[in-house]
Amino acid sequence: MSAKMLFDRAVRNWPAKVLSLALAIILFVFHRMVTLEERFYSVPLNVENLNSMMPSGTYPRMVRVTLRGESHGIYSIMEDDIEIFVDMTEYTLPGIYRVPVQWRKKGTALGIDPLQINVDPSEIVFSLDNRMSRIVPVRANFRGQPESGFIMTSYSLAPNQIIIDGPAGLISTISELSTELIDLEGRQSNFIMTANILTPSPLLVIRGRGTTDFLGNINQVIPVRNIENFPITITGLRDLFSGDLEFDVGNIHIEGENQEEIESFEPPAGFLRVDASEISEPGMYILPILTGDTGSLSIIVDPSEVNIWIHHTE
What we know:
With 314 residues, this protein is mainly β. The chain contains 5 helices and 22 strands.
């Protein structure tokens, strides 16, 4: 058979043959499409190239991803190998912008075919403001109380101030940040812990590790009681003498282990006294102020001594 005859036979009824071929291709593609499977999951949204801008309002932090392809292909893809992002390069002034959500493949997602990737939402509205930095103090935030009879006398934070970044309109309202709750309940001794520093808005960014080292000093409370202006008496003075005190009252400071015992203690008359039994001549003397029996209680007298003038009795 000659070449001409072969050509004539090949092109005979060519419209029908072309139509049949196109139909076969369509059926093949349709078959593949209806047999493809879908996989859904959510991934974090990356905001790239913000430069001197920062989001000043809330926006979705997660984006729903739909993968469509053959089962063995789409389920072999690691979730973090589909990166979802918005590119903020062209947005350089404060305002509200509608930004398309984009995606890129890497790692296990490369070379998978067929593969269709869809994201929801497909675009996100961003409110942008100028980026601002500020140094603010850190304040400890407490809950609970130490064990009865104990008190936290002091504490320290390291660092006690930090740098934060955020949109200008928000960061100008921030005067301090606080730690997470530090539990004092039932504590009887000094303690150290690392506490997270909290921000009132996810739009604020703390530079550094975002934590502070806390040292709390817990000491036992010593029960005390003060009795003021208690009379001071002169004892042991010889009959031929009389005495005058520079002041005739003193203050009593009482300490002990039991608050109830301290509160129930009532010093008797003559509890504060000066002993003049050793004085044999008129003159001015400095004598210690003595106390009566106090049992297990500790007593401090203020002042601890007094001037006394001794005269002959007329």
